[in-house]
UniProtKB/TrEMBL annotation:
<feature type="compositionally biased region" description="Polar residues">
    <location>
        <begin position="256"/>
        <end position="266"/>
    </location>
</feature>
<feature type="region of interest" description="Disordered">
    <location>
        <begin position="1"/>
        <end position="22"/>
    </location>
</feature>
<protein>
    <recommendedName>
        <fullName>Sigma-70 family RNA polymerase sigma factor</fullName>
    </recommendedName>
</protein>
<feature type="region of interest" description="Disordered">
    <location>
        <begin position="242"/>
        <end position="266"/>
    </location>
</feature>
Amino acid sequence: MNRWGEHAAGLRSALSDSDRPQSDLGQLIRSAAAGEWLGTAANELAEAIEHHVVRPLPSRLRSGLGRDEAEQLARVLAWAASRELAAKPPSRGVSWGYLANLVRWRVADAVRAEALRRHRHTVVAVLPERSGTPLVEPLGDNLDRIAQELCREGLPLASARRLLLVATDGPRFERAAIAARLTGCGVDRSQADGMAWLLRGGAIHRSALYRLAMGEPPAVVFADAVVRRWVKAAAGRDPGFRAGRTGKAVARTAPGNLSPSLQRTA
């Protein structure tokens, strides 16, 4: 009997709330504004907002922000809208439906903004540790050995590694492609040619990279006079380097040794 009695009391309470007469929103706002938003009139407006705006708030808005946060946001928005309506009352008057819809739209905007924020920040919620990430990209044993040799020739090790990364960055590994990648980054033509021969070589003189990969001792490879000339040019210490088909540097003829007809065009 007690259970049925409590249920009947709840139904009577719900019916009494639904049958409660609709208070005039405009009159409540004017009374609260006259009392400077304090006192009994302000409390009556707050209770009416709770009944007509906060309680009917849709469940999807409550779940999007959380029940307490959504209701508190609705109270703040409804109170701010009431003050705006008191300052600039519309000509057609105001109603609880207008105020409730206005609050729902603004709460829905907050729900969408919160969902977008969570979507954007999900991936970077936990930043990865950098301790296990190598600070220097590995080149491989043979290219590292070439970089050390360029460093011995006077080129800084960091610059040597950058040049090797640029030279080997691409599917094409012909000398022309290697030189084009380097000159495209601002490297001098003589230095780019030296690096291209050092990495690609030719039919007669194999590249230092090829000989190292075939297991030839580094001391023997870099003792070769032709390879030494390539290393010197790749390090930027031979600005006059210009290799022919054999990979050997071709000496440039001085303008004074040219014939009179060629001197005019030199």
